[in-house]
Protein backbone atom coordinates (compact mmCIF):
# COMPACT_ATOMS: atom_id res chain seq x y z
CA UNK A 1 0.00 0.00 0.00
CA UNK A 2 1.33 3.46 -0.84
CA UNK A 3 2.26 5.57 2.16
CA UNK A 4 -0.80 7.60 3.05
CA UNK A 5 -0.43 11.33 2.67
CA UNK A 6 -0.55 13.18 6.00
CA UNK A 7 -4.03 14.38 6.93
CA UNK A 8 -4.99 18.00 7.37
CA UNK A 9 -8.39 19.05 8.74
CA UNK A 10 -9.72 22.17 7.05
CA UNK A 11 -12.91 23.96 8.03
CA UNK A 12 -14.89 26.30 5.78
CA UNK A 13 -16.61 29.02 7.75
CA UNK A 14 -18.51 32.12 6.85
CA UNK A 15 -21.89 33.77 6.85
CA UNK A 16 -24.89 31.66 5.99
CA UNK A 17 -25.12 32.78 2.34
CA UNK A 18 -21.45 33.29 1.61
CA UNK A 19 -21.34 30.17 -0.58
CA UNK A 20 -19.23 27.79 1.55
CA UNK A 21 -21.06 24.62 0.50
CA UNK A 22 -20.91 25.61 -3.16
CA UNK A 23 -17.12 26.07 -2.99
CA UNK A 24 -16.74 22.70 -1.25
CA UNK A 25 -19.07 20.95 -3.72
CA UNK A 26 -17.22 22.49 -6.66
CA UNK A 27 -13.86 21.42 -5.17
CA UNK A 28 -15.07 17.84 -4.82
CA UNK A 29 -16.47 17.87 -8.35
CA UNK A 30 -13.40 19.44 -9.98
CA UNK A 31 -11.01 17.16 -8.10
CA UNK A 32 -12.96 14.06 -9.09
CA UNK A 33 -14.55 13.40 -5.68
CA UNK A 34 -18.02 13.52 -7.25
CA UNK A 35 -18.78 12.02 -10.65
CA UNK A 36 -20.23 13.89 -13.64
CA UNK A 37 -23.23 11.55 -13.43
CA UNK A 38 -23.90 12.33 -9.79
CA UNK A 39 -23.53 16.03 -10.53
CA UNK A 40 -26.15 15.76 -13.33
CA UNK A 41 -28.56 14.15 -10.87
CA UNK A 42 -27.99 16.87 -8.30
CA UNK A 43 -28.35 19.58 -10.97
CA UNK A 44 -31.73 18.14 -12.04
CA UNK A 45 -32.80 17.97 -8.39
CA UNK A 46 -31.70 21.56 -7.77
CA UNK A 47 -33.66 22.78 -10.80
CA UNK A 48 -36.71 20.79 -9.74
CA UNK A 49 -36.64 22.64 -6.38
CA UNK A 50 -36.28 25.94 -8.25
CA UNK A 51 -32.72 26.26 -6.95
CA UNK A 52 -30.58 26.19 -10.08
CA UNK A 53 -26.95 26.62 -9.11
CA UNK A 54 -27.44 24.88 -5.76
CA UNK A 55 -26.21 21.54 -7.10
CA UNK A 56 -22.74 22.00 -5.64
CA UNK A 57 -24.16 22.82 -2.23
CA UNK A 58 -26.24 19.64 -2.47
CA UNK A 59 -23.05 17.59 -2.56
CA UNK A 60 -22.41 18.48 1.07
CA UNK A 61 -26.07 18.69 2.05
CA UNK A 62 -26.74 15.19 0.84
CA UNK A 63 -24.00 14.07 3.20
CA UNK A 64 -25.46 16.19 5.97
CA UNK A 65 -28.81 14.45 5.69
CA UNK A 66 -27.12 11.06 5.78
CA UNK A 67 -25.15 12.31 8.75
CA UNK A 68 -28.33 13.24 10.61
CA UNK A 69 -29.54 9.70 10.14
CA UNK A 70 -26.25 8.65 11.72
CA UNK A 71 -25.54 5.95 9.16
CA UNK A 72 -21.78 5.74 9.53
CA UNK A 73 -19.17 7.45 11.54
CA UNK A 74 -17.29 9.78 9.24
CA UNK A 75 -19.95 11.17 6.97
CA UNK A 76 -19.65 14.78 8.00
CA UNK A 77 -16.18 14.79 6.54
CA UNK A 78 -15.18 14.71 2.90
CA UNK A 79 -11.75 13.78 1.60
CA UNK A 80 -9.77 15.49 -1.14
CA UNK A 81 -6.26 14.48 -2.21
CA UNK A 82 -3.90 17.34 -3.04
CA UNK A 83 -0.21 17.18 -3.99
CA UNK A 84 0.83 17.19 -0.33
CA UNK A 85 -2.13 16.22 1.85
CA UNK A 86 -5.13 14.10 2.33
CA UNK A 87 -7.52 16.94 3.17
CA UNK A 88 -10.49 16.31 5.45
CA UNK A 89 -13.04 19.05 4.84
CA UNK A 90 -15.36 20.05 7.64
CA UNK A 91 -18.22 22.07 6.15
CA UNK A 92 -19.80 23.96 9.03
CA UNK A 93 -23.48 24.54 8.21
CA UNK A 94 -25.23 27.94 8.39
CA UNK A 95 -24.63 30.44 11.11
CA UNK A 96 -26.72 29.25 14.01
CA UNK A 97 -25.48 25.67 14.03
CA UNK A 98 -22.17 26.91 12.83
CA UNK A 99 -21.03 28.04 16.22
CA UNK A 100 -22.01 24.81 17.92
CA UNK A 101 -20.31 22.96 15.10
CA UNK A 102 -17.35 25.20 15.19
CA UNK A 103 -16.84 24.52 18.85
CA UNK A 104 -17.01 20.76 18.53
CA UNK A 105 -16.14 20.27 14.86
CA UNK A 106 -13.75 23.01 14.05
CA UNK A 107 -11.86 22.82 17.24
CA UNK A 108 -10.66 19.92 15.08
CA UNK A 109 -9.40 22.15 12.28
CA UNK A 110 -5.75 22.76 11.49
CA UNK A 111 -6.53 25.42 8.90
CA UNK A 112 -9.57 27.40 7.85
CA UNK A 113 -11.07 29.24 4.91
CA UNK A 114 -13.22 32.18 5.90
CA UNK A 115 -15.62 32.66 2.98
CA UNK A 116 -16.94 36.17 2.36
CA UNK A 117 -19.39 36.99 -0.43
CA UNK A 118 -18.04 39.85 -2.56
CA UNK A 119 -21.48 41.53 -3.04
CA UNK A 120 -22.29 41.46 0.71
CA UNK A 121 -18.79 42.02 2.11
CA UNK A 122 -18.20 41.88 5.85
CA UNK A 123 -21.23 40.71 7.87
CA UNK A 124 -21.90 41.24 11.60
CA UNK A 125 -21.02 37.60 12.27
CA UNK A 126 -17.66 37.82 10.52
CA UNK A 127 -16.01 39.16 13.69
CA UNK A 128 -17.55 36.38 15.75
CA UNK A 129 -16.23 33.76 13.30
CA UNK A 130 -12.75 35.24 13.52
CA UNK A 131 -12.74 35.29 17.33
CA UNK A 132 -13.89 31.69 17.43
CA UNK A 133 -11.21 30.59 14.99
CA UNK A 134 -8.63 32.38 17.13
CA UNK A 135 -9.88 30.91 20.40
CA UNK A 136 -10.12 27.44 18.96
CA UNK A 137 -6.48 27.74 18.04
CA UNK A 138 -6.88 27.66 14.26
CA UNK A 139 -3.68 29.46 13.31
CA UNK A 140 -3.68 29.13 9.54
CA UNK A 141 -6.35 31.17 7.87
CA UNK A 142 -7.12 32.06 4.27
CA UNK A 143 -9.85 34.48 3.18
CA UNK A 144 -11.87 33.42 0.14
CA UNK A 145 -13.70 36.35 -1.43
CA UNK A 146 -16.42 34.42 -3.21
CA UNK A 147 -19.19 35.25 -5.72
CA UNK A 148 -16.84 37.40 -7.80
CA UNK A 149 -19.12 36.55 -10.77
CA UNK A 150 -21.87 38.60 -9.07
CA UNK A 151 -19.66 41.72 -9.08
CA UNK A 152 -18.46 41.22 -12.68
CA UNK A 153 -15.02 40.06 -11.48
CA UNK A 154 -14.14 43.68 -10.60
CA UNK A 155 -10.79 44.22 -8.90
CA UNK A 156 -12.07 47.35 -7.08
CA UNK A 157 -14.78 45.36 -5.29
CA UNK A 158 -12.26 42.68 -4.31
CA UNK A 159 -9.85 45.34 -2.98
CA UNK A 160 -12.55 47.05 -0.95
CA UNK A 161 -13.69 43.78 0.71
CA UNK A 162 -10.06 42.80 1.29
CA UNK A 163 -9.43 46.10 3.07
CA UNK A 164 -12.54 45.75 5.28
CA UNK A 165 -11.63 42.18 6.25
CA UNK A 166 -8.04 43.30 6.87
CA UNK A 167 -9.24 45.72 9.55
CA UNK A 168 -11.16 42.93 11.31
CA UNK A 169 -8.15 40.63 11.14
CA UNK A 170 -6.01 43.26 12.83
CA UNK A 171 -8.67 43.58 15.52
CA UNK A 172 -8.24 39.93 16.50
CA UNK A 173 -4.46 40.04 16.23
CA UNK A 174 -3.97 38.46 12.78
CA UNK A 175 -1.64 40.21 10.35
CA UNK A 176 -3.56 40.87 7.09
CA UNK A 177 -0.25 41.34 5.23
CA UNK A 178 0.63 37.70 5.96
CA UNK A 179 -2.85 36.36 5.17
CA UNK A 180 -3.74 34.99 1.74
CA UNK A 181 -6.86 36.39 0.06
CA UNK A 182 -8.36 34.50 -2.89
CA UNK A 183 -10.73 35.98 -5.48
CA UNK A 184 -13.06 33.19 -6.59
CA UNK A 185 -16.51 32.05 -7.68
CA UNK A 186 -17.74 28.74 -6.29
CA UNK A 187 -20.76 28.76 -8.57
CA UNK A 188 -18.78 29.29 -11.77
CA UNK A 189 -15.76 27.31 -10.60
CA UNK A 190 -13.34 30.23 -11.01
CA UNK A 191 -10.07 29.85 -9.02
CA UNK A 192 -11.39 26.78 -7.19
CA UNK A 193 -9.44 23.86 -8.68
CA UNK A 194 -8.21 25.67 -11.76
CA UNK A 195 -6.98 29.17 -12.56
CA UNK A 196 -9.60 31.57 -13.81
CA UNK A 197 -9.18 33.50 -17.05
CA UNK A 198 -11.83 36.03 -15.93
CA UNK A 199 -9.56 37.82 -13.43
CA UNK A 200 -6.24 38.52 -15.10
CA UNK A 201 -5.48 41.01 -12.30
CA UNK A 202 -5.51 38.24 -9.65
CA UNK A 203 -2.06 36.67 -9.18
CA UNK A 204 -2.63 34.48 -6.11
CA UNK A 205 -3.30 30.75 -5.64
CA UNK A 206 -6.51 28.83 -6.36
CA UNK A 207 -8.38 27.23 -3.42
CA UNK A 208 -6.86 23.83 -4.18
CA UNK A 209 -3.33 25.30 -4.40
CA UNK A 210 -3.86 27.07 -1.09
CA UNK A 211 -4.36 23.72 0.71
CA UNK A 212 -0.74 22.88 -0.09
CA UNK A 213 0.47 26.29 1.05
CA UNK A 214 -0.85 25.74 4.59
CA UNK A 215 1.98 24.60 6.89
CA UNK A 216 2.06 21.02 8.17
CA UNK A 217 -0.01 20.66 11.36
CA UNK A 218 2.10 19.97 14.43
CA UNK A 219 0.73 16.82 15.99
CA UNK A 220 0.81 16.93 19.77
CA UNK A 221 1.64 13.24 20.10
CA UNK A 222 3.99 13.92 23.02
CA UNK A 223 1.12 14.98 25.33
CA UNK A 224 -1.02 12.51 27.33
CA UNK A 225 -3.77 10.82 25.28
CA UNK A 226 -7.08 12.72 25.23
CA UNK A 227 -10.13 11.90 23.12
CA UNK A 228 -13.26 13.97 23.78
CA UNK A 229 -16.32 11.93 22.89
CA UNK A 230 -18.46 13.50 20.16
CA UNK A 231 -21.11 10.77 19.81
CA UNK A 232 -21.77 7.25 21.04
CA UNK A 233 -23.10 4.62 18.65
CA UNK A 234 -24.37 1.11 19.24
CA UNK A 235 -22.97 -0.98 16.42
CA UNK A 236 -24.12 -4.55 15.85
CA UNK A 237 -21.32 -7.02 16.34
CA UNK A 238 -19.04 -4.50 18.03
CA UNK A 239 -21.12 -2.97 20.82
CA UNK A 240 -20.70 0.53 22.21
CA UNK A 241 -18.61 2.76 19.94
CA UNK A 242 -17.62 6.25 21.15
CA UNK A 243 -16.56 8.48 18.25
CA UNK A 244 -14.40 11.58 18.27
CA UNK A 245 -11.07 13.15 17.46
CA UNK A 246 -7.95 12.30 19.38
CA UNK A 247 -6.83 15.77 20.48
CA UNK A 248 -3.44 14.81 21.90
CA UNK A 249 -1.24 11.78 22.42
CA UNK A 250 -1.36 8.28 20.95
CA UNK A 251 -4.06 5.66 21.50
CA UNK A 252 -3.17 1.98 21.19
CA UNK A 253 -5.18 -1.23 21.23
CA UNK A 254 -4.73 -2.77 24.70
CA UNK A 255 -4.14 0.62 26.36
CA UNK A 256 -5.67 1.18 29.82
CA UNK A 257 -7.97 4.19 29.64
CA UNK A 258 -10.29 6.14 31.88
CA UNK A 259 -13.54 7.84 30.81
CA UNK A 260 -13.99 11.15 32.69
CA UNK A 261 -16.04 12.68 34.24
CA UNK A 262 -18.53 9.90 33.35
CA UNK A 263 -21.90 9.96 35.06
CA UNK A 264 -20.49 10.14 38.59
CA UNK A 265 -17.58 12.51 38.13
CA UNK A 266 -15.28 9.73 39.34
CA UNK A 267 -14.89 8.19 35.87
CA UNK A 268 -14.79 4.59 34.73
CA UNK A 269 -11.78 2.50 33.71
CA UNK A 270 -11.46 0.23 30.71
CA UNK A 271 -9.14 -1.03 28.01
CA UNK A 272 -9.11 -0.14 24.30
CA UNK A 273 -10.34 -3.20 22.44
CA UNK A 274 -10.43 -1.84 18.89
CA UNK A 275 -9.81 1.38 16.94
CA UNK A 276 -11.47 2.08 13.60
CA UNK A 277 -10.70 4.86 11.16
CA UNK A 278 -12.29 5.24 7.69
CA UNK A 279 -13.81 1.74 8.14
CA UNK A 280 -10.46 0.08 8.78
CA UNK A 281 -9.23 -1.47 12.01
CA UNK A 282 -6.01 0.15 13.27
CA UNK A 283 -3.52 -0.97 15.94
CA UNK A 284 -3.08 2.66 16.98
CA UNK A 285 -4.26 6.20 16.21
CA UNK A 286 -2.60 9.53 16.90
CA UNK A 287 -3.50 13.14 17.66
CA UNK A 288 -5.53 14.56 14.78
CA UNK A 289 -7.24 11.27 13.87
CA UNK A 290 -11.05 10.99 13.87
CA UNK A 291 -11.82 7.49 15.16
CA UNK A 292 -14.49 5.15 16.48
CA UNK A 293 -13.34 2.89 19.30
CA UNK A 294 -14.61 0.08 21.49
CA UNK A 295 -13.55 -0.09 25.15
CA UNK A 296 -13.68 -3.27 27.21
CA UNK A 297 -15.65 -2.52 30.38
CA UNK A 298 -17.39 0.61 29.05
CA UNK A 299 -21.02 0.30 27.97
CA UNK A 300 -23.61 2.62 26.41
CA UNK A 301 -24.66 4.12 29.75
CA UNK A 302 -21.10 4.75 30.96
CA UNK A 303 -20.15 7.29 28.32
CA UNK A 304 -21.76 10.29 26.60
CA UNK A 305 -20.82 13.25 24.43
CA UNK A 306 -18.60 15.57 26.46
CA UNK A 307 -16.78 12.79 28.32
CA UNK A 308 -13.05 12.51 27.72
CA UNK A 309 -11.33 9.18 27.10
CA UNK A 310 -7.82 9.50 28.51
CA UNK A 311 -4.71 7.58 29.44
CA UNK A 312 -5.52 5.87 32.78
CA UNK A 313 -1.98 6.65 34.03
CA UNK A 314 -2.38 10.38 33.26
CA UNK A 315 -6.08 11.20 33.62
CA UNK A 316 -7.57 14.56 32.67
CA UNK A 317 -8.53 16.68 35.73
CA UNK A 318 -12.18 17.09 36.76
CA UNK A 319 -12.31 20.70 37.97
CA UNK A 320 -13.89 22.25 41.05
CA UNK A 321 -13.21 25.77 39.74
CA UNK A 322 -10.80 27.45 37.34
CA UNK A 323 -9.25 30.76 36.34
CA UNK A 324 -9.42 31.78 32.69
CA UNK A 325 -8.58 34.66 30.40
CA UNK A 326 -11.68 35.57 28.39
CA UNK A 327 -12.71 38.07 25.74
CA UNK A 328 -16.31 39.26 25.64
CA UNK A 329 -17.51 39.04 22.03
CA UNK A 330 -21.22 39.54 21.99
CA UNK A 331 -23.11 40.14 25.24
CA UNK A 332 -26.47 41.96 24.98
CA UNK A 333 -25.61 44.20 27.97
CA UNK A 334 -22.71 43.63 30.35
CA UNK A 335 -21.17 40.55 31.94
CA UNK A 336 -21.10 40.65 35.75
CA UNK A 337 -20.31 38.36 38.68
CA UNK A 338 -22.95 35.63 39.22
CA UNK A 339 -23.68 35.21 35.49
CA UNK A 340 -24.19 31.49 34.64
CA UNK A 341 -24.16 30.77 30.87
CA UNK A 342 -23.25 27.48 29.11
CA UNK A 343 -19.58 26.76 28.51
CA UNK A 344 -18.62 24.74 25.42
CA UNK A 345 -15.31 23.04 26.15
CA UNK A 346 -14.00 20.41 23.69
CA UNK A 347 -17.26 18.45 23.14
CA UNK A 348 -18.78 19.18 26.57
CA UNK A 349 -21.51 21.72 27.36
CA UNK A 350 -21.72 22.64 31.04
CA UNK A 351 -23.33 25.64 32.79
CA UNK A 352 -20.65 27.56 34.70
CA UNK A 353 -20.85 30.57 37.00
CA UNK A 354 -18.58 33.62 36.94
CA UNK A 355 -17.69 33.91 40.63
CA UNK A 356 -15.02 36.61 40.43
CA UNK A 357 -13.87 39.19 37.88
CA UNK A 358 -10.19 39.32 38.88
CA UNK A 359 -8.78 41.93 36.53
CA UNK A 360 -9.46 43.56 33.20
CA UNK A 361 -6.49 43.33 30.83
CA UNK A 362 -5.35 44.93 27.61
CA UNK A 363 -5.74 42.09 25.06
CA UNK A 364 -2.86 43.35 22.90
CA UNK A 365 -0.26 43.57 25.68
CA UNK A 366 -1.70 41.56 28.56
CA UNK A 367 -1.17 44.42 31.02
CA UNK A 368 -3.72 45.05 33.78
CA UNK A 369 -6.13 47.91 33.11
CA UNK A 370 -8.27 47.53 36.23
CA UNK A 371 -8.49 45.23 39.27
CA UNK A 372 -11.89 43.67 40.14
CA UNK A 373 -13.99 45.49 37.51
CA UNK A 374 -17.74 45.62 38.30
CA UNK A 375 -18.61 44.34 34.84
CA UNK A 376 -17.20 43.56 31.38
CA UNK A 377 -18.60 44.77 28.07
CA UNK A 378 -18.11 43.71 24.45
CA UNK A 379 -14.47 43.83 23.42
CA UNK A 380 -13.14 43.63 26.99
CA UNK A 381 -10.63 40.98 28.02
CA UNK A 382 -10.20 39.84 31.62
CA UNK A 383 -8.97 37.21 34.03
CA UNK A 384 -11.96 35.61 35.76
CA UNK A 385 -12.71 32.84 38.27
CA UNK A 386 -15.32 30.30 37.19
CA UNK A 387 -17.21 27.52 38.94
CA UNK A 388 -18.74 24.69 36.87
CA UNK A 389 -22.30 23.74 37.87
CA UNK A 390 -21.66 20.13 36.87
CA UNK A 391 -18.75 17.77 36.27
CA UNK A 392 -16.27 19.18 33.79
CA UNK A 393 -12.90 18.04 32.46
CA UNK A 394 -10.50 20.82 31.56
CA UNK A 395 -6.76 21.46 31.48
CA UNK A 396 -4.64 24.59 31.64
CA UNK A 397 -3.13 26.13 28.55
CA UNK A 398 0.33 25.28 29.91
CA UNK A 399 -0.46 21.57 30.51
CA UNK A 400 -2.47 20.97 27.35
CA UNK A 401 -3.60 23.91 25.20
CA UNK A 402 -5.88 21.61 23.17
CA UNK A 403 -7.99 20.92 26.25
CA UNK A 404 -7.97 24.47 27.63
CA UNK A 405 -10.05 26.49 25.15
CA UNK A 406 -13.74 27.22 25.44
CA UNK A 407 -16.59 29.34 24.12
CA UNK A 408 -19.34 30.82 26.29
CA UNK A 409 -22.83 30.68 24.80
CA UNK A 410 -26.15 32.11 25.87
CA UNK A 411 -29.50 32.27 24.06
CA UNK A 412 -28.09 31.14 20.73
CA UNK A 413 -25.07 33.38 20.47
CA UNK A 414 -21.43 33.31 21.50
CA UNK A 415 -21.02 35.68 24.41
CA UNK A 416 -17.30 35.17 25.05
CA UNK A 417 -14.36 32.93 24.31
CA UNK A 418 -11.43 32.04 26.48
CA UNK A 419 -8.63 29.85 27.67
CA UNK A 420 -8.09 28.19 31.06
CA UNK A 421 -4.91 29.19 32.91
CA UNK A 422 -5.29 27.65 36.41
CA UNK A 423 -7.45 24.92 37.90
CA UNK A 424 -8.55 23.67 41.29
CA UNK A 425 -9.18 19.92 40.97
CA UNK A 426 -12.29 18.26 42.36
CA UNK A 427 -11.68 16.37 45.60
Kindly describe this structure.
The structure is a single chain. The protein has 3 domains: about 5-215, P-loop containing nucleotide triphosphate hydrolases (Rossmann fold, 3-Layer(aba) Sandwich); about 225-310, Translation factors (Elongation Factor Tu (Ef-tu), domain 3); about 320-425, Translation factors (Elongation Factor Tu (Ef-tu), domain 3). It has helices at about 20-30, 35-50, 55-70, 95-105, 125-135, 155-170, 205-215, 395-400, and strands spanning about 5-15, 75-80, 85-90, 110-115, 140-145, 180-185, 225-235, 240-245, 250, 255-260, 270-275, 280, 285, 290-295, 310, 320-330, 335, 340-345, 350-360, 370, 375, 380-390, 405-410, 415-425. It has about 425 residues and is α+β, with helices and mostly antiparallel strands. α1 (about 20-30) packs across α3 (about 55-70), α2 (about 35-50) packs across α3 and α4 (about 95-105) packs parallel to α5.
Physical arrangement of strands within the biggest beta sheet: 2-3-1-4-5-6
The CATH architecture of the largest domain is 3-Layer(aba) Sandwich
Q: What Rg is obtained from the alpha carbons, in whole angstroms?
A: 22 Å
How many distinct folded domains?
A: 3
Report the average pLDDT across residues. Answer: 85
Task: Note poorly predicted spans.
Answer: 66-76, 93-101
Helical fraction equals: 10-25%
Principal-axes geometry comes out as globular
Helical stretch count? Answer: 8
CATH class call of the largest domain: Alpha Beta
Count all strands and give the number. 24
How much of the sequence lies in strands comes to 35-45%
Question: Would you tell me the structural class of the helices and strands?
Answer: alpha+beta
By CATH, the superfamily of the largest domain comes out as P-loop containing nucleotide triphosphate hydrolases
Instruction: Look up the CATH topology of the largest domain.
Output: Rossmann fold
- Oligomeric state of the chains in view: single chain
Distance between the termini: 50 Å
Amino acid sequence: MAKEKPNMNVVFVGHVDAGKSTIVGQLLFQSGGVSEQEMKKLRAEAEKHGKAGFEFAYVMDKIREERERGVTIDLSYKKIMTQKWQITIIDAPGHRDFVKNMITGASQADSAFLVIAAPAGVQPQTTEHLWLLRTMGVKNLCIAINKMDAVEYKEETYKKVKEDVGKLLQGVGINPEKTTFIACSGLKGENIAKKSDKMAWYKGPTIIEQFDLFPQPELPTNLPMRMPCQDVYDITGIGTVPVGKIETGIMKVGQKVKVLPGRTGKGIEGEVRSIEMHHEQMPEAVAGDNVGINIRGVGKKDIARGDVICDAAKPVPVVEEFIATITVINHPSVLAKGYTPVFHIHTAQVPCQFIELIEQINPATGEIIKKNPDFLKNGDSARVRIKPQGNLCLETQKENAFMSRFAVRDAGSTVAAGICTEITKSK
